[in-house]
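Open question from group meeting: does this chain pack into something compact, or does most of it stay loose? Before anyone orders reagents, we agreed to write out a predicted structure and look at it together. Recording both the input and the output here so the notebook holds the full record.
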Amino acid sequence: MTYVLGIDKGTTATKTVVLRAETGEALATARRQTPVFHRHPDWHEEDMDLTFAAVAETIREAIAKAGIAPSEIAAIGVSGHMGGLWTLDAVGQPLGRAVAWPDARAAGLLAEWHADGRDEAMFEVCGNAPIPGLPLVLLSWLKSHEPERYAKISTVFCAKDYINFRLTGVIATDESDLSFFPCDIRKRCVSPELLALAGVPEIAHCLAPVLATGELVGRITAEAAALTGLAIGTPVVTGAGDAVAAAIGVGALAPGQAVTVIGTSFMNNLTIDAPLLEPRNVGFLFLMPGGRWQRLMSNTGGGSLCLDWALSAFGRVEFAADDPTIFARIEAEARKLPPVPDGLIVHPYFGTSGMTAPRHDPTARGSVFGLDMATSPISLIRSVMEGVAFSMVDCYAALSAPVTDIRLTGGGARSRLWCEICAAVMNRPLLLPEVEETGALGVAMLAAVHAGFHPDLATAALRMVRIADTVTPDPVWAARYAAAYPLFRALGRDLIPLWKHRAALLAPRLTQGTP
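Structure tokens returned:
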């Protein structure tokens, strides 16, 4: 048994990767879109059975592509998007659809918490600026709006925990996903104080048991084996929440090492050796293996999500979002344009969470400044890439801890142009890991350590993580972006009251929806 399986259950897609346990070499990858339902504006739900069915399909396909026997897989790790609300009833069945983290149904409730200071009180305990898709926020909303469903909850855990449950029959979570639950971030344990602040103290008995990240959850059951093609009894470790899994998968384990993920969200994550809550009331703070923490200055409002919008909004068939050559074809046109084409500035807050760093403002939304007759779809696409990169500067500049190196990954990092834009905007070299599916690699590393291929995670990183390239900043681009960045900042500051005005206009819509 010389292989490990890494499963990354993402917001928009699920990926399963078969890797060599000793070297981290990826043999095969399979992908499926995550089935999503939008019953009301700003709602984002998943049918748990359909989600697991998609996961099972990727497992079967990846094993077949790799040409290995299921019995050769030594262990399995699962990553999943953090937050949201995944609940089971007393007999272990899904209690309605899962609510994923981009869901904004509880935005009105979160506004109330901000008004009475509860969000700041919560931040002091957990280090996470509440977003509408935070489990505690959603539980509180459910208690008020769907009390009958709330009363039937027997288990609350996260996306990857549900996949682990379907694979092993065991209910559990891990430290990384606990971070986004009612977590005392300093003591690294469940916080009754946070449950009380959210008005849901009685839910404490429904929280899944918390294991160390990478600890054994259970083994593949006969039912799971029939659905996935895996061998009965294969060990399954906890895996980790996606942000932590990505940091592990690029080897950002030591204090000062950072990873920027251009995914659906745009995450700028720094590994630290002590809890860091500055700047206050913004960003997130997660538990890392080895007694460390991860400070996230994350633009949950949009990373590649913003680019998807630009492509969709203009309906350009030649740039279809599912085209595997999309980035290469965009680059061919976008490279012909100068930085900040025609003075176009984009604020990348297109998602329902608004801005979560470097300020916390759930009312923030995307904006496009400088439109005129010279604006073309391709110039807008380049400006979206630049806007995301400008938010990277915002996020790292707000941290009071040293950053020794930054690794760049995620789907958006497939674009060499986007990587070069980020390097020039930051005006520093950026490291590009060899493996694209870093979340899957990260949890596969946890599985490889559990299976005994490596004595510890640091050794696994040395053997399984490789840096493929370094992107150095173009000095001409860097100068142009340095001149444009103050405009990006000033516009964002001036839009704050206008974002709030917009949110007030939409308040009736946000509070009306019923299931």
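Observations to bring back to the group:
The domain at 3-244 is CATH 3.30.420.40 (Nucleotidyltransferase; domain 5).
The chain has a mean pLDDT of 92.
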